[in-house]
Design brief:
Blueprint: E1 3-7, H1 8-18, E2 23-26, H2 33-41, H3 43-47, H4 58-70, E3 75-80, H5 83-97, E4 103-109, H6 123-129, E5 133-134, H7 139-156, E6 160-165, H8 166-169, E7 172-176, H9 199-221, E8 227-229, E9 236-241, H10 243-251, E10 260-263, E11 265-266, H11 270-279, E12 282-286, H12 292-298, E13 306-308, H13 323-329, H14 356-371, E14 376-378, H15 403-413, E15 419-424, H16 425-442, E16 446-451, H17 470-477, E17 484-487, H18 494-506, E18 510-515, H19 520-529
Parallel strand pairs: 2-3, 3-4, 4-6, 5-6, 9-10, 9-12, 12-13, 14-15, 15-16, 16-18, 17-18
Antiparallel strand pairs: 1-7, 5-11, 8-10
Bound molecules: thiamine diphosphate.
């Protein structure tokens, strides 16, 4: 079959398409976005009607994919690691219902926080849900895992969690494709109550899931993605997970002197881990992200076997693995084959020149600083978070998607005035709407700025679910129409904007201000493609 140069994300997408995918469901988030974008662009998606439109958030994505699996078809859900927190309710319960058509959940983790607010490790979620997980060491393995993973999911009737990391998602390598499979026909579970998690049914299903755990361990012991490679020096044994194996091999082109257990499938293969522990004096764990395997091996008291890794300081407790720190952990000096020249000096990200968020912050902070000095601004996640930096220094918080409105509410409940929320249009529909409803229900004294650039700009300009609907959503949630004020954020409009802001802050109740101007990046792209 043909070989293509693919990003890790693209390898996952191509594998899903080749394996007879019927639908991908996702909300954008670095480093997972390219999976869905690749599927959207693939000719087969249009030709065979594969679902690929963006979902409103990760929870709706996860639920829709479970629905597709319910109907017997193969579905994939993709998200960045923090998206797992949003999807978690359905994700954990999907392990309880089990699946019908194959279901793969891709969580792309971001160790070192290249573009995230934390570096949580999604393997804890897979462990929590008690389902098998894959963690590829390279792009080909990512392809193979997804291609065969649907079958595995259908065999065990459970979802599979596929854990990626940024470096693998965003680097390219040659990937060999496998033959195209057809989509599944619509078909339903033989058990009509499988997906009804009433306590009486859920208890039975939970026992069944617990019973499956030994089979999952056996599958890991027999998995081609877990490999025990013996070495002559038994002073140390190495467990190398996912991309950690790649970094280790970079240091040992001639083969490693220590026994190595490569991990690509969880739960951990018990037999191979026992063999390594019995044969070696101490164990080094190489895992990108948090010390998931290390904690399992060490146990709570950390007595017994000697385990080295992130918990004892052999490797840093935070940040990514790389060939350098892996070299130090195995007592070697990493010799890069070539110097990487500095082509572009590092600089902090900034709002684009001409961006509407700039004009929104300029008008807003002028009014607040001069007329309402006790103000606080609760912001959210998107391009407008860059209002935290100079010259704006305009915001006081950014925690998780949707938290602007609800934190501003809590602060307003505490007596803060003015309490202002700034949220983007995509983040508003992702998880700001319910918080706004809380404010309406209690008539909270709050001013919400929905800075609408009619796209999901931060992640590259994907469609935004709220485009053309923001005012009607707010009216539907119960905001008084006269306190929904729309403005065009441009310098020439500053006086008019400032007057609107002044009036809505003075209003004691829920008001919404919508500065609306298309993102200059999507605008430029549209002009170029004309
Ligand atoms: C739970 C979660 N999902 C996805 C992301 C990735 N992400 C960060 S901001 C953002 C959307 C921003 O869109 P919008 O609110 O419209 O603001 P804009 O960037 O367009 O200004 C996304 C998808 C995230 N940080 N957290």
């Amino acid at each position: 079959m043909s070989k293509q140069l693919l990003l890790g994300d693209e390898a996952i997408a191509q594998a899903a398409l080749d394996a007879g995918l019927s639908g991908v469901y996702a909300y954008p988030g670095t480093p997972s976005t390219e999976i869905t974008e690749y599927i959207q662009m693939a000719p087969i998606t249009r030709e065979t009607n594969i679902h690929s439109r963006w979902s409103t958030n990760e929870k709706t994505a996860m639920e829709a994919a479970l629905g597709m699996s319910f109907a017997g078809k193969r579905a994939m859900v993709c998200m960045k690691h923090v998206g797992m927190n949003v999807a978690a309710d359905c994700f954990i319960n999907s392990a309880m219902t089990g699946t019908n058509g194959g279901l793969i959940v891709v969580a792309a983790d971001d160790p070192s926080m290249h573009s995230s607010q934390n570096e949580q490790d999604s393997r804890f979620y897979g462990d929590f849900a008690l389902i098998p997980m894959y963690e590829p060491s390279n792009q080909q393995e990512a392809y193979d895992m997804v291609y065969h993973g649907f079958e595995f999911s259908e065999k065990i009737a459970e979802p599979i969690l596929m854990r990626m990391v940024t470096r693998l998602a965003h680097s390219r390598s040659g990937v060999e494709q496998k033959p195209q499979k057809p989509q599944n026909e619509l078909h339903f579970s033989a058990d009509p109550k499988q997906f009804i998690l009433l306590p009486g049914i859920a208890r039975k299903r939970y026992k069944a899931l617990l019973k499956q755990q030994d089979d999952f361990i056996k599958a890991s012991e027999e998995s081609p993605y877990n490999k025990y490679v013996d070495g002559p020096n038994k002073k140390m044994g190495i467990i190398a997970c996912g991309i950690g194996y790649n970094y280790l091999m970079e240091n040992y082109p001639e083969g490693c002197e220590y026994p190595v257990l490569k991990i690509g499938q969880y739960p951990l293969p018990q037999k191979q881990v026992s063999k390594l522990v019995e044969e070696c004096d101490e164990i080094l764990i190489l895992e990108d992200g948090q010390p998931f395997v290390e904690r399992l091996l060490k146990g709570y008291l950390g007595r017994g076997i000697t385990v080295k890794g992130r918990l004892d300081g052999t490797l840093s407790r935070d940040g990514e693995l790389n060939p350098d720190n892996v070299a130090r952990a195995v007592g070697r000096e990493y010799q890069p084959k070539f110097e990487v020249p500095t082509l572009v000096e590092m600089r902090p990200p900034a709002l684009c020149e001409g961006c509407g968020h700039r004009d929104m912050y300029n008008a807003l902070t002028q009014v607040l600083k001069e007329e309402f000095p006790n103000y606080k601004v609760f912001s959210d996640i998107g391009c407008y978070t860059l209002g935290a930096n100079a010259p704006f220094n305009a915001i006081n918080s950014c925690v998780d998607m949707g938290a602007s409105i609800t934190m501003a509410k809590g602060a307003a409940d505490s007596g803060l005035y003015p309490s202002v929320a700034v949220i983007g249009d995509s983040t508003f529909t992702h998880s700001g709407m319910t918080g706004l409803l809380d404010c309406v229900v209690e008539n909270t004294n709050i001013t919400v700025v929905i800075s609408d650039n009619e796209t999901t700009a931060m992640t590259g300009g994907q469609d935004s679910a709220g485009t053309g609907k923001i005012e009607s959503i707010c009216i539907g949630l119960g905001v008084a129409p006269e306190h929904i004020r729309v403005m065009v954020p441009l310098k020439k409009n500053y006086e008019e904007m400032k007057q609107m802001i002044r009036e809505e802050i003075a209003y004691h109740g829920v008001s919404v201000i919508v500065p609306r101007r298309e993102c200059i990046q999507t605008l430029a792209r549209k002009k170029r493609s004309k």
